[in-house]
Amino acid sequence: MRAVAVLGATTLLALAGGQAFAGVAPTDSPEKAATVVTYDASGAEEFTEAVDGGADVWNESVTGVQLEPAEAGEQANITIVADDGWPRAQTTSLGNGRIWMGRQAVEEGHDTLRIASHELGHILGLPDIKPGPCTSLMSGASAGTDCTNAYPDESEKASVEDNFGTASYFKSDADFKRIPLTVGRVHQD
Ligand SMILES: [Zn+2]
């Protein structure tokens, strides 16, 4: 009985909706437009260029998400500041959080562009993968001060595409933030 009722309803929708849904289809189709994540580097001081460079690295490396400077007065997804500690990131939710471009690592000889890309990687949902080779962005400082590679490897790129590929199926920002992630922890380096 119930099955028949459901079938009946489906048929009705299909009959009535032939034309009505046609106009709605484009916005309903799961097209993977890039998620835009904005960042505010106004507090990044001498690291502003490195932060912009790190954003460019990600924009060149993945298609599911693009990092753009926030407009003046706009609340950015990512706030980036400079301080004297070790570089670190706090991911509050996928694509949202805070980055500290710590001077300590730079004083020890680590590359500023690699640091910026690495910390942005945390905000895009990547964990540290340490120890690891220089070809891995998320191996961070474990690859040594000679390592200046600022680009994610294939598996790191794929993880970010996965994170934002799923996200693009959700419509509202509230839905977007419901994606389960281990967040809130400050990743040192
Ligand atoms: Zn890290």
Report on this structure:
- The protein is an alpha/beta fold.
- It has one domain: Collagenase (Catalytic Domain) (3-Layer(aba) Sandwich), CATH 3.40.390.10.
- It has 7 helices and 6 strands, in the order H-H-E-H-E-E-E-E-H-H-H-H-E.
- The chain has helices spanning 2-20, 25-28, 48-61, 103-107, 112-123, 154-167, 173-176; strands at residues 35-43, 65-69, 78-83, 88-93, 96-102, 186-188.
- It has a 6-stranded mixed β-sheet.
- Strand 1 (35-43), helix 3 and strand 2 form a beta-alpha-beta unit.
- Helix 3 (48-61) crosses helix 5 (112-123).
- The termini are far apart.
- 33% of the residues are buried.
- Residues 1-29 and 167-182 have low confidence and may be disordered.
- Zinc ion binds at residues 118, 122, 128, 140, 187, 189.
How many beta-strand elements?
A: 6
Helix/sheet category: alpha/beta
Major sheet size, sense and barrel closure: 6 strands, mixed
The ligands bound in this entry are: zinc ion
Q: Which strand order spans the largest sheet, edge to edge or round the barrel?
A: 2-1-3-5-4-6
Low-confidence stretches: 1-29, 167-182
Briefly note the CATH topology name: Collagenase (Catalytic Domain)
Instruction: Tell me the radius of gyration.
Output: 21 Å
Mind telling me which CATH architecture this is?
3-Layer(aba) Sandwich
Number of domains: 1
Mean pLDDT: 81
CATH H level: which superfamily? Collagenase (Catalytic Domain)
CATH class: Alpha Beta
